[in-house]
User: Fold this.
Amino acid sequence: MKITKHGENLVQLTRFPLLFPVNVFLVREDDGFTLIDASVGGSAPAILKAAKVLGGDIVRLTLTHAHNDHIGSLDALIAALPNAELSMSAETARVLNEAREAKARKSPEKVLPALRPRLLQPGDRVGSLEVIAAPGHSVDHIVFLDTRDRTLIVGDAFQTRGGMAVSGTVNWSFPFPAFATADKAQALESARALRSLQPTRLAVGHGNALASPLNAMDAAIHVAERKLNKATAHA
Assistant:
């Protein structure tokens, strides 16, 4: 697990940095870390070790959305952090609990308890992080704005791996977030709304965090607009 510090409060943890980078983030607070996302399966030991190396306990665990590369180690982390506050959007909780129920029907011997997290609404706070709705990549997608320094942690609403792109814009050097995007038009609308927040740093689920990201966000939004307009014209 690659550890990269950004500013005073943000630490990026990256699994498979050379092949298929999957990021989660530790956000430092006075009482410990907030962990954003749960990476792919098998990542829990490395995440827990990183927090220990960095000198803090994980006291909050939250999610941007329910895709497998963001929830793969969720159950292992919940088991290892029984006192940590678990939070997510109501739609994410619904998706995850429906998946647990489906697994229980197929394999009754492997029943997992229903998740009962704190359900987040836009405007809520998770530590110093403000919750912002950003649907498009998925219907349940939310992002987090650090109110202390305006770092925006966006899950898959943008990517920087293979070049800056709005979710839904295919970048053939790393096309996977685009392939997993549910609604390209809604993703573009969310991207515009996130740009209007004027973040000072953009932290993404796939790729390097970007300081002073506004020009790059503008360019990515322009490309997404052009491609969506072209696709609509030919529909």
